[in-house]
């Protein structure tokens, strides 16, 4: 599955267009490498996202095309979620 689509389906980022923009600004890494929106992600991959003062790191637990919003958190395991000090 494409990275931008996974970010949207998993509700890590709410809109696919925003997910693509974040990738285009090189704010997303997959397995330690800067990733483009079209990067293919699989179960077990580690995604790191930098959004302003916030850094999020997750491991993909499952890849699915669609999922109810209430179950979206089941698609990934949160490794880190912190805000940088100002």
* Shape, principal axes of CA atoms: globular
Any idea of the CATH class?
A: Alpha Beta
The fraction of residues in strands falls at: 25-35%
Uncertain ranges: none
Could you estimate the helical fraction of the residues in percent? 10-25%
Oligomer: single chain
| Counted beta strands | 5
User: Pairing-aware structural class of the strands and helices?
Assistant: alpha+beta
Strand order of the largest sheet: 2-1-3-4-5
- Could you report the average pLDDT, rounded to the nearest whole number? 95
Return Rg in Å. Answer: 12 Å
Distance between the termini: 36 Å
Query: In CATH terms, what is the fold-level topology?
Result: Structural Genomics Hypothetical 15.5 Kd Protein In mrcA-pckA Intergenic Region, Chain A
With helices defined by DSSP (H or I, 4 residues minimum), what is the helix count?
Answer: 2
Reported for the largest beta sheet, the result is: 5 strands, antiparallel
GO biological process, one term: rescue of stalled ribosome
Organism: Desulfotruncus arcticus DSM 17038
GO molecular function: ribosomal large subunit binding; rRNA binding; tRNA binding
Protein name: RQC P-site tRNA stabilizing factor
Describe this structure in words.
This protein has 86 residues and is α+β, with helices and mostly antiparallel strands. The chain has a single domain, classed as Structural Genomics Hypothetical 15.5 Kd Protein In mrcA-pckA Intergenic Region, Chain A (Roll). It is 19% helix and 30% strand. A 5-stranded antiparallel beta sheet has the order 2-1-3-4-5, with no helix packed on it. Helix 1 crosses helix 2. The protein is globular and about 35 Å long. The model has no long low-confidence stretch (mean pLDDT 95). This is RQC P-site tRNA stabilizing factor.
């Amino acid at each position: 599955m494409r990275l931008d689509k996974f970010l949207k389906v998993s509700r890590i980022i709410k809109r696919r267009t925003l997910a693509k923009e974040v990738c285009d600004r090189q704010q997303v890494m997959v397995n330690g490498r800067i990733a483009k929106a079209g990067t293919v992600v699989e179960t077990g991959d580690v995604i790191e996202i930098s959004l302003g003062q916030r850094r999020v790191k997750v491991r993909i637990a499952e890849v699915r095309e669609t999922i109810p919003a209430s179950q979206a958190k089941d698609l990934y395991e949160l490794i880190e979620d912190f805000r940088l000090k100002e």
